[in-house]
Amino acid sequence: MKPDIEIAQGTPLSPIADIAAALGLSSDDVIPYGKYKAKVNHRLVKKMAGKAGGKVILVTAISPTPAGEGKTTTSVGLADALHAMGKNVVLALREPSLGPVFGIKGGAAGGGYAQVVPMEDINLHFTGDLHAIGAANNLLAAMVDNHIFQGNALGLDPRRITWKRCVDMNDRQLRYLTDGLGGKANGTPREDGFDITVASEVMAVFCLASDLADLKARLARIVVGYTYAGTPVTAGQIGAAGAMAALLKDAFDPNLVQTLEHTPALIHGGPFANIAHGCNSVIATRLAQKLGDYVVTEAGFGADLGAEKFLDIKCRLAGLAPSAAVIVATVRALKHHGGCPKEELGVPNLTYLEKGSANLLRHIANLRNGFGLPVCVAINAFPTDSAEEQNFLRMLCKKLNVPCVVSEVFAKGGEGGKALAEAVLGVLDERPIQHPYAIDAPLDEKILAVARKIYGAKDVAWTAAAKKQLGELAANGFDRLPVCIAKTQYSFSDDAALLAAPEGFTMTVRELRLSAGAGFVVAVMGNIMTMPGLPKKPAAEGIDVDENGVISGLF
Question: Which segments of 428-520 does DSSP mark as H helices, in order?
Fold first, then answer.
């Protein structure tokens, strides 16, 4: 089959004005960014407040593996299948980060014949949203250091500045550095560092804000550091919130594009799911609900990370509730969880598959029994799958009364997702979300509840530093916020080597990071980096552009 980029470049696109018109949008509602991209006025959500919201379908997955799962591809193909069936559906996805695009993971526009387009634009700069977020982040950083330089009226302790600068690129050289060197005229020397833009709290704030007023209020609540006396200092006290919101004003409007089959798609925001909540923006999801009868959206990484945060953070804060959840699995990935060597993943083997399917079963149990959601399973088909292996997974799910269908959207687009679409429509139901913890429970109880009820852990241990931070958060009134656990995406535990569905393990809270503007506390378990590095052979080495401006090598 052709590379993704050749498929995308060879498919005729509809003018974005036609996509907008099909959604009932007027020219006053849409701000074109060329022929095939546009922004949609976010204020439409309030203008359409009286309109009933469409049903939300959450697409999540088993725990990721190097063998691949295809969550975004499945989301796109499911939306195309519903569209082909005559349903009024809108796709809502996150924006890609340049770091993974040029690194090893690749972009986030789907794959094969289930893509959002123009895929080159979406993966490279798009409408500039991530650059605006980076600029807002770095404006705050500059104003923090300038405040110290200009006399430090707030008494900020330079050793306790928690706010970092950011750049949307994988650059390990920037993780830890010392800046402000060169004498008194060039700032105050201090230890500093960079995060990747999608790990910035500004991104999390951007994706959870309900309108511009809420955005500015959340930005003002961001804690940038602490005084010598241990009192938190906010972006509002620094005087940065208004200017930051001004930088984000245009970016806050969701981006409208289309799939290869002309299904409308809103792509907006992109927080990492092992650092933040891993979902597209609240404003884009709400807008999609107003414009469509069905909304297909996704959450990052496996259901233990992305879906848990989607349900416990985004849904709680935004008043959302999905009507169904789709768990994407592949035969290859489940065999990897069963201990299959990488070179044998394409060889049929029911022993490895049966052992690894414990991972799928726990994700099903978490979503169906833990959160109370209707669930169906999508087997993202690979050419190396055997009919016997696919049938094993179908029979496994049938015993649980969970629909399980083979999805061929990568090779066939919407046509390959019709069985999945029918299965999803068959399980849709309106139910309240069952949460693993009460919102007003102490922070340590919330972390323990997620670790036990979602991950399967026996207990949670705390480092001395994390225990001290817990006391400081409680003293400053932040311990009743939702918890956002940062851990490896490859395992239910905080140890990437523990595959399938481990039990009886103890997880360790290494550090607590306050995201007061976003409205949650990040509990860091294991060695989590907020600035990735490039691999030995980065994807960037294979990307090029010719004299006509045609890009190649982008997957």
Answer: 443-450, 464-475
pLDDT, residue 214, reads 98
- Residues 6 or more apart whose Cβ sits within 8 Å of residue 97: 108, 130, 168, 196, 197, 198, 270, 272
Half-sphere exposure of 110 (CA within 13 A, CB side): 34
pLDDT band at 66; cut points 50, 70, 90: confident
- For residue 207, the model assigns a pLDDT of 97
Q: Write the pLDDT tens digit of every residue in 344-363.
A: 999 999 999 999 999 999 99
* DSSP string across 363-420: HHHIIIIIS---EEEEEE--TT--HHHHHHHHHHHHTTT--EEEE-HHHHGGGGGHHH
Find the radius of gyration of the CA atoms of the chain.
23
Q: How confident is the model at residue 333 (pLDDT cuts 50, 70, 90)?
A: very high
pLDDT over threshold 80, residue 262: yes
281 close to 218: Cβ distance less than 8 angstroms: no
Number of H helices, E strands in the chain: 21, 25
CB 130 within 8 A of CB 198: yes
> Is this prediction's pTM over 0.85?
yes
299 strand-pairing partners: 279
Tokens of 428: 């849709």
Residue with tokens 């409205």: 519
Structure letter (DSSP) for residue 306:
I
Cα separation, 551 vs 546, in Å, equals 7
- CA dihedral (166, 168, 174, 179) in degrees, to 10, reads -30
Instruction: Give the amino acid at 310.
Output: F
C-alpha–C-alpha distance, residues 362 and 365, integer Å = 5
Cα gap 164→200, rounded to integer Å: 8
User: Which positions ≥6 away from 253 have C-beta within 8 Å?
Assistant: 31, 39, 40, 41, 42
Q: Return d(Cα 130, Cα 169) in angstroms, integer.
A: 11
pLDDT, averaged across the chain: 95
Kindly tell me if the per-residue pLDDT of 322 is higher than 90. Answer: yes
Nearest CA to 197 out of 554, 538, 540, 530 is that of 530
Beta strand pairing call for 375-380 and 324-329: parallel
CB 5 within 8 A of CB 539: no
Token output for 144: 């923090």
For 208-239, the pLDDT digits (tens) are 999 999 999 999 999 999 999 999 999 999 99
Angle in degrees, CA 520, 208, 127, rounded to 5: 135
- State how far the Cα of 331 lies from the Cα of 353, in Å rounded to an integer: 7
CB-CB contact of 197 with 166 (8 Å): yes
Query: Exposed (0-12), middle (13-18) or buried (19+): which is 462, by Cβ within 10 Å?
Result: middle
257 neighbors 191 (Cβ within 8 angstroms): no
Q: Which helix (H) or strand (E) holds 81?
A: helix 71-84
Q: What's residue 413's pLDDT?
A: 97
Q: What are phi and psi of 168, to 5 degrees?
A: -90, 65
Pairing of strands 506-515, 459-462: parallel
CA–CA separation, 203 and 132 (whole Å)? 10
Q: Which two tokens stand for residue 271?
A: 């927080």
